[in-house]
Amino acid sequence: MATAPRPRTTTRDPEDLAARLTDWLGTRLPGARAVDVSVPASNGLSSETLLFDIEHPEPPLRACALRLAADPGAYTVFPVYDMAAQYRTMRLVRERSDLPVPRVIWLEEDPGPLGAPFFVMERVAGRVPPDVMPYTYEGNWLHAASDGEREHLEAASVALLARLHDQVPPAEADFLAPPGEGSPLRRHVTAQRAYYAWVVEGLSRSPLIESAFDRLEELWPRREGGTVLTWGDARIGNVVYDGFDPVAVLDWEMAAPAPREVDLGWTVYLHRFFQDLTVGFGQCGLPGFLRRDRVEARYASLTGHTPRDMDFYTLYAALRHAIVMLRIAYRQAYFGEVSVPQDPDTLILHHGSLRAMVQGSYWGEAGRTR
User: Fold this and answer.
1) Burial track 202-238 (b if 16+ CB lie within 10 A, e otherwise)
2) Angle subtended by helix axes 147-167 and 260-280, to nearest 10
3) Residue 10 pLDDT grade (very low, low, confident, very high; cuts 50, 70, 90)
4) Count: domains in the chain
5) Cβ-based neighbour number of residue 355 at 10 Å
6) pLDDT exceeds cutoff 70 at 119
7) Among residues 8, 62, 163, 231, which is most buried (max CB within 10 A)?
8) Is residue 168 part of a domain?
9) What's the average model confidence in pLDDT over 333-341?
10) DSSP state of 111
11) Is pLDDT of 38 > 90?
C-alpha cells in the first residue's frame, strides 16, 4: 500500500452520486441541496465516504459525511456490509460513553437512492494520521511532531480504548456478536476462518495464513477474560485529531463483543505493520511510538486490567490483517492492477512479520519494547 499505486476502490461515478444524493436529501429535508460534494483522498478500501454540505435555511447539520456500503461491482473487501449495525453501534457508543463519536443523523437501508445502503453523520474537522503514505514516513504531520506531542496523542488514543471497554455495557452490543457457538473469542476466530474461506474460494489458498490459524490454536489463552465491546479497527488512522487530541472516532464496521486484548493487539500490530514497511524502505520511522510495552502499561494503569496473552492477540491481529491484504491483492488482480504470483503468500505485504510471529521469533523479550 505504501509503495504501489492505491488499489481501485469503486466503479461508481462521483458526479452521478452527487446528483442522486441531492435527490435523496430532498426526501428527508424538503428544499435541501447537497453542495460541495467530494470524495476524500483517503477514501477507504471497504465502505466509501462522501463529504458534503447541506444548503438549507435550517439544516439539522451543515457539514456532513456519508458512509456508503461498498460497491458490489468493485470486488468488495468484505462479504456483507451491515450499515444499520454500524449506525446502531455509533449511536450506542455515543450514548453510553464519553468517546467523541460523530452524531449520526439519517440511515437509509433502501439501496435504490445511491445503489447501496448508507448513513449520514456529522463531519468533524481535524486531521487523520495517513495510511498512504503512512504516518511513519517522513514528511507528514505526525512524523514531524515532537516526542512530547506524539506521546500525548498516544496516551489519548489508548485512553479511547480504555473508556470504550469500561463504559459501554457489552450486553447492549449483542446484536454485533458473530454467529455460532462457544465463547466470544471462539466465535470471533470462527468468523475469521469463514471470512478467509470466502476470500480464497476458487483461488489459491495461503499456506501462511493457514499455519497462523494453527499457531493460534497452540497459543489459545487458558483464561479468555471478560467480554467488552471492541472497536474492531482500533488504530489511530481511524481517529480525527484536533492538534493531538482525539475529536472523532470513526469506522465501526468491525466492532464485536470480544476480549479487550482483541483491540489492544490490533492497535499494537497495525502500528508495527506501518513501522516495518517504513524500515524496510530505508527510513527510521517512529520506533518509540506505540510500543507494545507502553500500550500495555498505559491501558493497565487506566483500567486496572493487565493485558494477557498478547503474543496470541498480536498474532491474531497480523492474521486478520493478512486476510484483508490477500483479499485486496486478489481484487487488484481482478481489475488487472497486479498479477497473481505462484506463491500467494507474497501477496501479503507483511508476510515476513506474520511468518516470524508464527515461528515465535518476531517479538522476543527485546522485541516487546520495539
Assistant:
1) eeeebebbebbbebbeeeeeeebbebbbbbbbbbbbb
2) 150
3) low
4) 2
5) 17
6) yes
7) 231
8) yes
9) 91
10) S
11) no
CATH number at residue 74: 3.30.200.20
Residue whose C-alpha is closest to residue 241's, from 150, 107, 358 = 150
pLDDT of 6: 47
Q: 8: helix, coil or strand?
A: coil
Cα angle 109, 47, 142 (rounded to 5 degrees) comes to: 140
Do residue 335 and residue 292 come from a single domain?
A: yes
Single pTM value for the model: 0.93
- Is the same domain home to 171 and 303? yes
If asked whether residues 98 and 180 sit together in one domain, one would say no
Report the distance separating Cα 164 and Cα 162, nearest Å: 6
Q: What's the grid cell of residue 109?
A: 437501508
Confidence of residue 290 (pLDDT cuts 50, 70, 90): very high
Amino acid identity at 257: P
Active site residues: 233
338: how many CB neighbours lie within 10 A of its CB?
A: 17
Rg of the chain's alpha carbons, rounded to an integer? 20
CA distance 149 to 142: 9
Q: Are 110 and 145 members of one domain?
A: no
Reported confidence tier of residue 350, pLDDT bands at 50, 70, 90: very high
Higher pLDDT, 369 or 126: 126
CB 304 within 8 A of CB 187: no
CA distances from 340 to 19, 203, 206, 336 (A): 38, 10, 12, 10
**Residues 161, 83 share a domain:** no
* Residue of 38 and 368 predicted with greater confidence: 38
CB 98 within 8 A of CB 51: no
pLDDT score recorded for residue 234: 98
Work out the pLDDT band at 41, boundaries 50, 70, 90. low
In a shared domain, residues 63 and 195: no
Whether residue 276 is found in the same domain as residue 150: yes
Q: How far apart are CA 134 and CA 281, in angstroms?
A: 12
The predicted pLDDT at position 42 comes to: 57
Q: Is the peptide bond before 357 cis (omega within 30 degrees of 0)?
A: no
* Domain enclosing residue 339, as ranges: 141-367
Residue 66 to residues 131, 240, 245, 311, 358: CA-CA distances in angstroms? Answer: 20, 16, 23, 37, 39
